[in-house]
Amino acid sequence: MKIAFIGLGAMGFPMARHLAKEHEVLVWNRTAEKAERHAREHGTRVASDLTECANAPVIITMLPTSSEVDETVDKLIEHLQPGTLWIDATSGDPNVSRETAKRLARKQVAFVDAPVTGAVVGAENATLTIMIGGSAEDFERAREILRINGKTIIHVGDVGTGHAIKVLTNSIMGATVWMTAECLLLAKELGIDIRTALAVTNAGSGRSNASENLLPMRIADGKWPLVFKLAHHDKDIRIANSLSHQLHASTPMLALTQQLFSASLHQLPENADYIEVAKIVAQMNGTSWDA
Ligand code: NDP
Description:
The chain folds into two domains: 2-158, Rossmann fold (3-Layer(aba) Sandwich); 164-283, N-(1-d-carboxylethyl)-l-norvaline Dehydrogenase, domain 2, CATH 1.10.1040.10. The protein is 51% helix and 14% strand. The protein has helices at residues 12-19, 32-42, 66-76, 94-105, 119-125, 136-146, 161-189, 194-202, 209-214, 216-220, 230-246, 252-267, 277-283; strands at residues 2-6, 24-28, 45-46, 58-61, 85-88, 110-113, 116-117, 128-133, 150-157. Strands 3-2-1-4-5-6 form a six-stranded parallel β-sheet, with helices on both faces. The protein has a three-stranded mixed β-sheet with strand order 7-8-9. α3 (66-76) runs parallel beside α4 and α7 packs parallel to α13. It is globular and about 65 Å long. The site of NADPH dihydro-nicotinamide-adenine-dinucleotide phosphate (NDP) has 24 residues, from β7 and α5.
């Protein structure tokens, strides 16, 4: 199958590499050198220009937000072939995705939102969880292609539902990271060794992905790698809040989480990792994790 893959960032680069094991993959990236490196290293082919991607029967986008996806649709729409499947793996906005799907349907192009979770390591190891919004038939087509990228592929519902559950689940993670960092900081201030505090948390009711995997290497070992840009995470939580507003829902924890993450975004350097919000938790208390 010929697949055009657009967006070779932290996630897209390894995802396209796995797809190339089974498919003829055409790659396009805004910064062309990354596409050239991908072709050299993984046997893909660089699209001569973006519009060449419109010739592929399957197009996958892995871009920062729905707005870049929309711009890409604008550029390709006149060139698309009827019967094409557009898989948007971006963590996007369900409202935009539904409009995109309608625009593409007028060209007889199917659209599914297929955001992923599992971080860069999941993309590298092809162990992503992929949540798909679209018709049952389009889901089956997308699953057949994406099975090489993920262990768990779930049909969530109609177009937009994949994007909706993705931003909601990331919001749960954001709130958990923040709360866990606050309580572990308090433990530290109370004179409890941070590794002991983590050991107790992870053996008890406070255990989570944040306490088991995300925070220990940062707050105990002082290693703060960039794996997921805070700007992307902040975007997800803002979309989740906009969905809550749309439903006139009462979600104060979600609103607070968004405020804290957006404030952190302004305090931390550009390209900060999302777990660096733990540094802001410490700063708000006049201290740091290595103090
Ligand atoms: P990156 O920032 O690493 O990559 C973004 C990609 O989009 C790059 O290829 C970049 O091109 C391209 N891009 C940026 N702006 C434009 C534009 N205006 N036009 C065309 N291309 C553009 O992001 P990630 O790979 O980390 O994330 C991609 C998506 O996946 C996001 O929605 C994110 O929320 C989601 N996600 C990320 C995870 C992670 O752990 N990193 C985990 C799960 C989901 P260039 O190379 O030129 O900059």
